[in-house]
Amino acid sequence: MEEGELIGTGGFATIHKGKFRGVTVAIKKLLVDSEQSKNHRSKQFSQLRHEALIQTGLSHPNITKVLCISFKPFAMILEYLPLGNLYDYVKKWENPLPWDLRIKFSMDIAEAIRFMHEKVPIISHLDIKSPNVLISSLNPGDPVCAKLADFGTAQPIRFTLKVHPVDNPVWLAPEALSRNAFDEKVDIYAFGVVCWELLTREEFFGEFQFMSEISDAVISGRRPEIPKYCPPQYKSIIEKCWTMKPEERPKWSWVLETLEQLKATGPALETTYGAQQNAIIYDKKIQKTNSMKQKEDVKQAILEDKEKAERRAVLEQKLL
Predict the structure, then answer these.
(1) What is the separation, in whole angstroms, between the first and last Cα of the chain?
(2) Cβ burial, residue 31 (10 Å; 0-12/13-18/19+)
(3) Full-prediction pTM beyond 0.90?
(4) Cβ(48)–Cβ(34) under 8 Å?
(5) Is the peptide bond preceding residue 121 cis, with omega within 30 degrees of 0?
(6) Which domain holds residue 56?
(7) Which of 226, 247, 254, 295 is the most buried (most CB within 10 A)?
(8) What is the pLDDT of residue 188?
(9) Which residue numbers delimit the Protein kinase domain (predicted)?
(10) What pLDDT does 184 receive?
């Protein structure tokens, strides 16, 4: 095993690009910190071991593969996906994201979660979010385009849970944020948020400055606006998935059937809704450009005023 460049850091582990038996891989191993207590290191080891046990039991095309477990040092050897994660890809407006690719990403993520929820006992990921979705292809015609990753918080659901292992409110369901009992349906809620990200390519409640504001909004039942360029079926998926009441969230069979119906519309989907979104994106770019120009103009005016003031001060000093 050859360890290369650092490509990611989590709460208790680092991920390096590396080589294993001549194949490029991702190596996930424990964070090394000499100042950590023995108990803390033991807890981290237990977390990574738990993740390894969960993920090695999940063999599915839309879940990242565990190729091997190393014991000295303890590490997970994972398949390497060079295209990065969904969050980074979606947020860069210059990256192409046609509707057929959006639907394929959505279907791949849904298939992965459905597979976990059909296990006995049910396995809940508990940290579904766009950064935890890795891209394997940008061709919607390929069998797999997206894979679910990072199973550090995943666990079997034998009864309702009380404390959620993640505290980021962006993808967290209202029942978990409220510290009420919750189950695997928090994954369905988070899937709805990821679909909204795929649709808008924006930050969830990006207008808020503090995470507490997002928490308060989600708990009160508020959700970001779904733009007009969203196909009705996709809008229905988002709204049903992120609804307040967990028992009203849809079954995966309905989600995938609805996505299949959208997929069947073919090029018409891009012609109708893609054109609308492109027009809005163009307007936003113009607004952003104008805003940047205004800021530069203000900055230049301030510099000019400062230079004038300095020249005036020099002149007044000479006249004294």
Answers:
(1) 77
(2) middle
(3) no
(4) no
(5) yes
(6) 2-79
(7) 226
(8) 98
(9) 1-262
(10) 97
Report DSSP state, residue 273: I
| pLDDT reported for residue 26 | 96
Residues 42 and 115 in one domain: no
Establish if 281 belongs to a structural domain. no
268: how many CB neighbours lie within 10 A of its CB? 10
Active site residue 297: no
Q: Is 273 part of any domain? A: no
For the chain, helix (H) and strand (E) counts, in that order, are 10, 9
User: Which residue stretches of the chain have pLDDT < 70?
Assistant: 32-37, 40, 281-299, 301-306, 308-310, 312-320
Q: Do 9 and 72 belong to one domain? A: yes
User: How many whole angstroms separate alpha carbon 313 and alpha carbon 316?
Assistant: 5
**CATH code, 47:** 3.30.200.20
Whether 91 has a binding-site annotation, put simply, is no
Specify whether 186 is located in the same domain as 212.
yes
Match 């597979």 to its residue by tokens: 115
Per the CB < 8 A criterion, the answer to whether 216 and 229 are in contact is: no
The residue from 100, 108, 127, 150 that is catalytic is: 127
> Are the C-beta atoms of 56 and 39 separated by less than 8 Å?
no
Decide if 44 contacts 149 (C-beta within 8 A): no
123-155: b or e for each residue (b if 16 or more CB lie within 10 Å)?
Answer: bbbbbbbbbbbbbbbbebeeeebbbbbbbbbbb
Give me the DSSP letters along 119-132: SSSEEE-S---GGG
Tell me if 231 is assigned to some domain.
yes
Task: Report the C-alpha gap between 123 and 58 in whole angstroms.
Answer: 9
Which CATH number does the domain housing residue 92 bear?
1.10.510.10
Total Cβ atoms within 10 A of residue 283: 10
157 shares a domain with 225:
yes
**Residue 47 pLDDT:** 86
169 and 242 in a single domain? The answer is yes
